């Protein structure tokens, strides 16, 4: 029987946080793709087979709302992981996703998002 690894998209503008998150998730046997901005994240969503996404809300000069809306349209599970107030994120995005506060355990969150318990 072949084991199929899950692929998680991490969208995070801070390279240190992104690499740490990917490392902890990969230690669980999952694959990670890192995007630092909306353009590259949207390109990955269109061109790769993904199982879930973990989104930083504030990507510097842009937010990840466009990414979240694309993920919702594709039926892919995702959440926001941010230092911003969850009410602000919901108000600005018009969405009702799971929101986790930084600092966060990315491996635990990835598991919850994949299980649908986020």
TrEMBL record:
Kindly give the Pfam families that the UniProt entry links to this protein: Response_reg
Keywords carried by this UniProt record = Phosphoprotein, Transcription, Transcription regulation
Q: Which residues form the Response regulatory domain?
A: 7-117
On this chain, the residues bearing 4-aspartylphosphate are 56
Q: Does the keyword Glycoprotein apply?
A: no
Tell me a GO biological process for this protein.
phosphorelay signal transduction system
Q: Does the keyword Transcription apply?
A: yes
Q: Which PANTHER family match?
A: RESPONSE REGULATORY DOMAIN-CONTAINING PROTEIN, STRESS RESPONSE REGULATOR PROTEIN 1
> What is the protein name stated in its UniProt record?
Response regulator
